[in-house]
Every structure is written in C-alpha cells, then in structure tokens.
Specification:
Low-confidence stretches: none
Mean pLDDT: 84
Oligomer: single chain
Largest sheet: none
Structural class: mainly alpha
Strand content: under 5%
Radius of gyration: 24 Å
Shape: elongated
C-alpha cells in the first residue's frame, strides 16, 4: 500500500471518528429537546387542568415537588446532556485536528505550531459549567416559569375544573 493511500485511509478514519461524535451530539440534543418540550407541555397542561387543594400544606408540598422538578431538569437533564455533548465536541475537534495535522503538517511541526498538544478526552468539565450557557438557561428558565405558573394557577384557583 502506498503512503498516499495510508494517509488517505488515516485521514478518513479520523474524520469518521469526528463525525461519529458529531452525530452523537445531534442525537443527544434532539432527545434532550423532545423530553424538555414534553415536560413543558405537561406543565402548561397542568396550568389549565390541574387542581390542587388550596390548603397551605398541599400547596407547600406541591411547591417542593415543582422545585424538585425544576432542579432535577436543570442538573440531571440539561446539565448532564450539556456535559456529555461538551466532551463529544472536544473529542470531535481532537480527531478533526489530528486529521488536519496529519495531512497538512509534518508530525514534528504540530507542537511548534500549536505550542502544546491537545488533550483528546477532557478530564474535568465542571459540574455547573453549563450554567454559563444561554441555551441551558433558556431551558431552565422556561421550565421554572412554567412550574411557577402552575403553582400560582393552583394557589389562586385558576384551574378550569
């Protein structure tokens, strides 16, 4: 096999690995949004239909449950999906950069051009780093406001039944 074929095969393999990670990201985001929109639909339907007894203990318990839903959605759903996608993005860029370096730069020049080697698999992605992302806040705040609206509709007796 010639060096050109080996270069092409290696480049193609690296790009397939990068594309695999990109596909995982897209699939994960699609699933994340489907579940989030379903949660929003349930909360919105609850504003219209749900009737909680207007007693202090019932409303307090309902508030705690809704708060738990908002926090669980934020940290266990949005945050976890963001962290997993961030890892896949970094790994995808690693493979893409390796393919680019392999084709465009001699191996000995990679460190000279970049100044440091890239790390393929991120070791530490902060637990709350997702809270700095607007996309995440849009989901979290929408969930929070729908949950607050549901609680207010129940507390004020605005449900239709």
């Amino acid at each position: 096999m010639s060096d050109t074929n080996m270069d092409t095969d290696r480049f193609d393999a690296l790009m397939r690995l990068a594309e695999f990670r990109n596909t995982r990201i897209a699939d994960r985001r699609s699933h994340e949004w489907k579940v989030t929109v379903a949660l929003w639909a349930l909360l919105a339907a609850g504003i219209i239909e749900l009737r909680i007894p207007r007693s202090t203990p019932a409303l307090a318990i309902f508030a705690i449950v809704l708060f738990g839903v908002v926090v669980a959605h934020a940290f266990l759903w949005v945050g976890d999906h963001w962290r997993q996608s961030k890892k896949d993005i970094l790994i995808s860029f690693f493979y893409t950069d390796r393919a680019q370096d392999h084709v465009l730069l001699p191996a000995e020049n990679i460190l000279a051009v970049r100044g440091q080697a890239q790390q393929a698999w991120p070791r530490n992605i902060a637990c709350c780093e997702f809270l700095c992302q607007g996309r995440c806040w849009a989901q979290i705040l929408t969930t929070f406001f729908l949950a607050a609206g549901l609680w207010l509709a129940s507390a004020c007796g605005l449900a239709t039944h």
